[in-house]
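Backbone geometry tokens:
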Amino acid sequence: MKTSTLRTIKSLLTASLSAGLMLAAAHAQAQSPAQVFRVSAIPDEAPTELQRKFKPLGEYLEKKIGMKVEFTPVTDYAASVEALINKKVDMVWFGGFTFVQAKDRSKNQITPLVQRAEDEKFRSVFITTHKDINKLEDLKGKTLSFGSESSTSGHLMPRSFLLAAKINPDTDLKRIAFSGAHDATVAAVAGGKVDAGALNISVWEKLIGEKKVDPAVVRVFYTTPGYYDYNWSVRTDMNADLKKKLSDAFLALDPKNPADKAILDLQRASKFIPTKADNYTAIEAAAVNAGLLKK
């Protein structure tokens, strides 16, 4: 057989093998699942409401980071902390206190990325149906519902302001309860299960706006001073490029753009701004002072 013929056969075999390998690689790529970016949030509202609020944001983030984004609900606040630390999810919507807990549990391996502008001076409200409850001191001898034990705006900060007013919820109140979520606290007060309740102002205003509570029956009798609260957090070891893409995506949401405004409205945000761990030192101090965080 001539040398030129052998070369031709060899070239054909090489080309055929290369094509085969390329097809196999393409098939394998088609078969392997797309990389999924998993997101969760503290369950401070009903699971269906959390899913509804996140859907447009998730679709927006998919386009910005080039990955499939999935919302993974958790059963309680502690589960959101463990899910991020143990790499079950990649990003979590934390309250200020749950962020502090995650930072503490992970030995400073959790980074807050962004927060809503509203979270720089977030507030809690105390509500009641009783005409004789008009200030914090009137709660003595009464029953009160907080939200979740790990909630910043539904427990930690309301407890902190009660203590500052020389009221110890554990000894000065007849009974305290934990509803588990802000909307559940409103339901407990409206239904007469407790004399008063504490929850975050954002959920209260949303329920009023949706006419799910009658402010003539259930009313606010005390609003706390402002404090830092919610943020979107990731693990500190996250790929720097992905971290930047996420931050940029949140910061790019523009209320003047109708599509962006729809996303912001669902998040009850005027806009997102950068944040940092140092913003939450007062929350950490309040948690230690209230005996909710050991140092």
